[in-house]
Amino acid sequence: MSVQVEGISKIYGAQLALDQISFSVDSGTVLGILGPNGAGKSTLLKIITGYLRPTSGNVRINDLLVDPDNQEIKKLIGYLPENNPLYLDLYVREYLRLVAGLYQISNRNKRIDEIIGMTGLEAEISKKIGSLSKGYRQRVGLAQALIHDPALLILDEPTSGLDPAQLVEIRQLIRNISSNKTVLFSTHIMQEAEAICDKVLILNQGKVVALETPEKIRNISLQKIRKIVVEFSEPVSVRIFDSLEGVAKTEQSSSGKFYLSSDADDLRAAIFRLAVKNNLTLITLHEQESTMEKSFLELVK
User: Fold this and answer.
1) pTM for this one?
2) What are 204-216's pLDDT values in tens digits?
3) Cα separation of 97 and 112, whole Å?
């Protein structure tokens, strides 16, 4: 199930929420959408689902034009919004029967049993939704988004507000689901994007600032500046690095480690020669790994 977003803009009054957004997602891809608050993530997802009309531009799913009035398109999409609206007074199975009825699913009991097993809700089916923990409510939200077996699954902040154990469970559930579906989801959690996504799209102020694999996103910060961690077995002055070419900045931690910022390719060989020249013993010498968080901050600041 491929998705093409073509020049999407959205204006609320005087506010430009999305500004000429264009990208494509191949069938079977898991795309994570990241960005600071107000970047336009939820607005973009609502437009892709057909819930909102864009001010300009189009969205196509398998070359079919998305339109809020096109019911056939909606059958292809499963959607879990950020606020996960549920009928809290209904029992889990009762709620899923309601949703299955709306989608006119045949053999509903069989499909409900399948989706309850898929989302790990077996122990909760006799409870009212209002009595469930947030983690299980998210599972119910995923169940309603999946019950009609959509080819495209759209999740808006699916792990927001979960505790660490719940987060791991929902993350694993999404990973299992994504084996045979195209998945788009927004998140604030960098580790989540790295663990689940094939590609990451980063929005800032309504514009696309990056669309790459997690590995390439992670290495963006390395393309601008490298940080080398150095530690000697004995105390030395920070001035010892003054003779090294390519060092832009040197910082020393309270533990005695030095952090050298450099725009050179690799200073480690030069630092090793410096240690030999000064009869010093190196106990730490490595390049600090880049992270998604560092690259994200580089892109949106």
Assistant:
1) 0.76
2) 999 999 998 888 8
3) 7
